[in-house]
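User: Can you predict the 3D structure for this chain?
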Amino acid sequence: MAVKITDEYIDLLNQAVARELQVSVQYMLQHAKMEKLIRKALPENILLDKTTYDAVGKFLKDFAIQEMKHAGSIMERIYYLGGEATTKATKPTIGNSLSEFAKLGVTAEEEALVLYRKLIEAAVKIGDYETYELFEKIYSDEEAHLFKFQEYTSMQDEYENPSQYVSEWRKVFTDDYFELLNKAAASEISAIVQYTNQHEKASLLTMRKKDTPLEVITEQNKAKVISELLKTIFMQEMEHLEKITERIYLLEGETTSIPAPLPVVGGSTTEFISLGHKAENDAIVLYRKIIEEALKKGDTTTRKIFEEIVMQEEEHYWKFDDYLK
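Assistant: Here is the predicted structure, written as structure tokens:
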């Protein structure tokens, strides 16, 4: 290694990972909650082709994906430097209105910029110019996010006070039902963090050594193939999280932001596959139970959402299964 890496330096990088994981989940859940807010908008705004809520909802999703990519880039750098990337996020805070989303976003981005200036200074001090350049780019992205959020902090929220009346059809959505749905949301968050981390760990330079003539000719090895597979899967899990949390919010529930079970990364591609295989198996079992409960309650929309998700989770399961044979 050309530069001297300390535990304190890796810890600083992991603070950045934890923050990126936090805001990625935070912005995705705020994006999902926007669908609920749109339905509470004042009637005259519902008549518009596009409301403020639509516009904000779109950039929140874009930011969520970008922040997860930041997390992945930092994880990859940590592994290259010989450290172990964290799977623990700083606790997200969601909020209940557009202006609150914006204020929380401003706070999160300001805190990130302070941390990243510290990281840039530390990287220059030890001569780690690759990390310096990485955080210069991330810093620029976060500054753009900050400026975007600042546009909405003083905006008046345009929705009516919620009615205390609960319509008859919504009475079937009990606390235990929301608890079940939130287990699905927690499972998806866990999968996103686990697969993102494993993707970057599999991309580690030392795991890309070519051991056979075939690997030299094709410029491929098992680690590289698994890395690309994990990248594809965690992007699909982001879509699953979006669909599940949107549904929870539309049913007037609140969604979790904590992964469960806790993500487990493993140390080799063989372990990545085994852990992914188990995670997909557990998700399928849980989601079939949700489908069964949704069928009992006549909740057709939720049933269809999870039937579609189960089909994709089964595809993930069989892809992992292929590498276990």
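Residues 1-160 form a domain with the Ferritin fold (CATH 1.20.1260.10). The chain has ten helices and no strands.
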